[in-house]
Amino acid sequence: MKKRLFLLLLFLCGTLTSFSQTNISGTIKNKKGEPIFRASVILSRVADSTIVAYNFSDEKGFYEIATNSEDTALLISVYGFNVKKQVMEIENRSQTLDFTVVEEAVVLKEVSVKADKIWGENDTINYAVSAFRDTTDVVIADVLKKMPGIEVKDDGKVEYKGKPISKFYIENMDMLQGRYNLATTNIPAGDVATVQVMENHQPVKALKDTDFSDATALNIKLKEGAKGTFSMVADLGAGYDEQFLYDGKLAGMYFGKGHQYLTTLNGNNCGYNLVSNENITVRPFASIVKPSSPGIGESRCAFNNSMGLTFSMMHKLKNEAELSFNIIGAGDENKKSSYSHTVYYLPEADTIALSESMKSTEKSYNAEANIGYTVNKDLDYLGIKFILAGNKNINSSDIINETIINQDEDYHAVSAKGDIRWVRKSRKKEGKGIEIESHNSYGVLPYSMSTAPGSFPETLNVGNDYASSEQSIGFSSFESRNVLRFLSLFVYKRIKLFPAATVNVEQQQLTSDLNGISNDNTHIEFDGNLFGNDIKWLKVQPGIALTFDYDKRRIKARLSIPLQLRYISYTDIIHSTSYEPLKLLSQPYFNFKYKMNNRLDVSISSGLNNSTPTLSSLYSGYIMQNYRTLSCYDSRLSDRWANTSMFKLSYNNIMKYLLGELSVSYNIYRNEVMYSQSFENNLMVIHSVEQPSQGDYLSFSAYAGKGFSWKRLNINARGSYGFGRTPQLVQDKLATYNNQGWNVNLTASISLTDYIFFSNKCSWSMMKASLEGSGTSQAPINSLIENANISVVLPWNIEIGASVEFYHTSNEDNTHNFALLDCNVAYTYKKIKFTLNCTNLLDTKDFIYSYYSGIYSYYSAYSIRPRAVMLKAHFKVF
Amino acid sequence: MKNKITFLIIVTMLTIFSANAQHLDLSDFKTIDTSRYVITYKLSMVTDTMNSDNKNDETYILEIGRNMSKFYSYDLFRHDSICTVLINAGSGTGPHFKTITLGTDIYKYSETMTIIQRIMRSYGYPIFEYTENSLLMKWSITNESKTIHGYQCRKAITSFRGREWTAWYTVEIPVAEGPWKFSGLPGLILEASDAKQHYSFSCTGIENKQRPIQYINYYYDKSTYGKVTEELQKFYNDVYEYDRKIFPDVQHMKRITTPSGKKETVPRDPKEKKSLPYNPIELE
Question: CA nearest A55 in B: which residue?
Answer without folding.
Answer: B186
